[in-house]
């Protein structure tokens, strides 16, 4: 009995793996439950260990090749640098959170934090001073080394340059002499031409030699001096932390919400006492007016929130939200229209030209069109009722819904609508004749026929279409965000590209992974859904 | 409390009150969004936010990077943004209807100088050949386009035109590179009512490339040089793909660069908010240009730390640091002190000078962006429509009373025109009171009677 | 007047230039509560005949009548049981039958509905599989669901379109008995199409052969006069059964020959070669992924 209960659990897990498409982990589960260990181990090696090592090998190749491919924007970052950039992004997000906490801290806690941060700031400041000196020494060292290496080459270069200058002068004189001779008829023209030609060849050769030396010098200059690089890096890191502490100090002290509130309140209280003892009507009015303003500023402060900088997490959240908005918009249009297309040949004939012309249009074009079209609906986005309403909804208020999000979502929808529409139409029109006969025999009415026969039978294809749609939508979204600079991962990547910092490349590759992994999860989600609605296998009982 | 307020408003109607400087302004709107382009001269906006100057005015400000100048302007026009870091030419061009038409105004000049012209290594070598004086590690400045002229002519003989990049048709960069070329007798081309690209009669063709793409475009050989703001000239040096030959400081000493632009309608609806914003910006500008007794800029390193954050300029600390702390690398071996490369407050630079607007208008007319000849009065009118010293002075008055600035920081008594100057690379005198005369004093370009 | 009749019915398909006449001048009359088996070769138009009877298709010529009125459209009075089950795969056994019952008896209360469905599921002995989906059932079970669904509609005429042809012999026998049992319990008019002479002989009151198409028609019929219940086990010893079976078979085979002779032979004779290395496919047990 115990055995069968165990089996039940096992089969549940296996089924879950099957539905979610992680069948590669089957043998692991089976092994845990002690089923044919030999066979499972074999399967694990074949389907898990070998792929794992393959991925490892890819990473190794990447690590090896990266630094060897030099671009003008720096080396291709290795996996560890990409990881580092992910950590930095995480740190940025963390710091925003800490700053927000600092901004809101009150009373004793605030004072404690203030004391601690002050101490830390002092320590870091010392450290910064020390490291700055270190960088200076390293710089000096590098300069010295450079000078030593470059000195002889430079000398050689200068000497050669002087020599060639003389040589050129000589040649010029020679040519002048020949040309005079030619003019006097003492020499033939051919020798003059030959001399000029020789001069050109010689000049080119000399120039090549000089520039070779110069590039040698450049090469030495652009070489990295490791101690300096390291010193700079650690200096940057500490200076960065020091700067962060400085900002924290501000947020704990002068820019802290409670501090500001207290200040405003005491100002207000002061005015109120003044007002009580005001001498004349004019004075009283003046003071009262100030009091009202002070009061207003207290009110305003009470509603103040910390204005967080945009972090990668926020961008990711917003992208996912946008893609779903676009996706649901697409589904909302594609499914009914697809059903009508599938049911009615004339309708299909009407839509075919539209579908065939608009389906291949690039998302970029749609984006521009929607940017113009959607923009027209929001002449004053700040005071738009719909936007204000959406931005006050509990879960999505932090996402800041704005026209940019809406037209990005529209672009996603426009590109994602086609696979869903075409598949739905196909699903509906390819409904089994037998099922239609059943409907006829039962004399099902139009709606019954639609909801009891047509839609259920088309559902697997509809979901297959939706799955493609979501994939397309996700791809399109990143491009749309990059182009329209609507907050999201696309904008993150674009901003990074525009930053052109030393971490740019690593950040872009990091986003490549983030986008890939999210895309993969979205697809998995759709596969599971698809399995749930398909009626020819599994899925339904997990 | 409500009764107090009521009492004040009714009594206020009965008794005329003197204005209350030094008090918190009645803000019409306290949550604002400002746009910027990833260039170091967006610093005043970023600093005003990061150092809490906006906060002190009771403003909650979000500062959002924009992908390009066109989108930035569009977002200001459609209300997505409340204000933005703009090219000086943008409010003017928008107001007169060159490009997108909209009435944009400015009450604050963000900075002076800050641009450079960079040429590719190949062009630089040829320039050195043409002018042996350039063939040292530290050539004498200013470098004119004389050395470029033979290259341009040689290309023209081969039936090609040298290609160069600038960032926007109405950008200071466009006018500066044109000025630089034309000063050496190279024709950069006219805009006409048909030719919106400005290629007519061009010996050198100038095309638009967004700043961050400049180095990559130069490297790929599509252009042979460009005029752009920082950090993109220093980036070319750092990557070894080009040589900055001159800065706009040499083309026109202390020329106006970016302004803070807002929609005129917005300014009308939010007059106090506008003043509050300008107050914060003036303080940010002053903070940026603060020096110690020895004249060293004390706050710049912290500013660079802030600007190098990925949500602002985002370039490497070391790259931004050069120009912002008063140094400029012309080549890896040629680091020069340029204390005035970025001016954010000195020289009364933040005041919205009518004379700046008129200079840009003359350049727009000179190169045909303004297709019709205009009378001198028109220049003054447009400048007064776009530049709003009244807002600036109001803000300054508040700050003076609050003790944040000194009397001498602000040109209180000016009529809005800087004195005539000939500190240009070609020495031509610019008298803002006589735009037509100035227009006619150039050899290349449209002339009006 | 017969209960269900086909009167000079003809039907064909395709455009005029390339038209195939499937049935020509078919006449059939079925009495109330009679069990008629139509027997024919595959492709002779049996299913078309069934579609005509069910009203799924309208004849080009002639009329199909029930109770003397022309059948214009399909409906639950003509309960057709399709050759390939036609179960809705997204509904359970219960759901499939429920859908039909709900449609035919809209006035049923929920409990009546449930009782009715369960009754018919029990009738085909599928109660344990009530909540299963069609893909979880074997072919025979699906056919039974299909039968239960058709019966649950309480049709006046039961039209069975090769109901058992897709099943293996054993299941087939079980289901044959079941159909007979149900029919005997709950008499009604049945038209069954089959290609199996034994089946027809065993089950029907009358066997009507369908000639070979195109332009098939019904040929001379064979009444089956054997006593019911007919005992399957002893049938082969029953001389009447053997005689009838033989004559039907002979008739059918003869018809086939005749048609072959009539037809212009345009097929190419293929040499009768067996593959050299012909091996029956071995069933390898599939190791789980």
Automatic annotation (TrEMBL), chain A:
* Key word Transmembrane present: yes
Cite a single GO BP annotation.
Answer: transmembrane transport
Q: Look up the domain of life of the source.
A: Bacteria
Q: How does it sit in the membrane?
A: Multi-pass membrane protein
The record ties this protein, via InterPro entries, to: MetI-like, MetI-like_sf
Q: Which GO terms describe its cellular component?
A: plasma membrane
Gene3D superfamilies per UniProt? MetI-like
Q: Where are the transmembrane segments?
A: 47-65, 320-343, 355-378, 404-429, 450-480, 500-522
Q: Which residues form a coiled coil?
A: 114-148
Q: Which UniProt keywords apply?
A: Cell membrane, Coiled coil, Membrane, Transmembrane, Transmembrane helix, Transport
The places in or outside the cell where this protein is found are:
Cell membrane
Write out the similarity annotation. Answer: Belongs to the binding-protein-dependent transport system permease family.
Record PANTHER family = ALKANE SULFONATE ABC TRANSPORTER-RELATED, MEMBRANE SUBUNIT, NITRATE IMPORT PERMEASE PROTEIN NRTB
Write the protein's name: ABC transporter permease subunit
From TrEMBL, chain B:
Q: Name one GO cellular component term.
A: endomembrane system
Which InterPro entries has this protein been placed in? NrtA/CpmA_ABC-bd_dom (IPR044527)
Keywords from the named record: Cell inner membrane, Cell membrane, Membrane, Transport
Cell membrane is among the record's keywords:
yes
Q: Which stretches are transmembrane? A: none
Chief subcellular site?
Answer: membrane
Report which superkingdom the organism of origin falls in. Bacteria
Where in or outside the cell?
A: Endomembrane system
What is this protein's name? ABC transporter substrate-binding protein
From TrEMBL, chain C:
Q: Which SMART domains is this protein grouped with?
A: AAA
Q: Which InterPro entries match?
A: AAA+_ATPase (IPR003593), ABC_transporter-like_ATP-bd (IPR003439), ABC_transporter-like_CS (IPR017871), ABC_transporter_ATP-bind (IPR050166), P-loop_NTPase (IPR027417)
Any idea which UniProt keywords this protein has? Answer: ATP-binding, Nucleotide-binding, Transport
Q: Does this entry carry the keyword Chloroplast?
A: no
Classification lineage: Bacteria, Pseudomonadati, Verrucomicrobiota, Opitutia, Puniceicoccales
Give one Pfam hit by family name. Answer: ABC_tran
What name is this protein filed under?
Answer: ABC transporter ATP-binding protein
GO terms assigned for molecular function:
ATP binding; ATP hydrolysis activity
Q: Does the keyword Secreted apply?
A: no
| UniProt cross-references to CDD domains, sorted A to Z | ABC_NrtD_SsuB_transporters
ABC transporter domain: residues covered: 4-237
Q: Which SUPFAM superfamilies is this protein grouped with? A: P-loop containing nucleoside triphosphate hydrolases
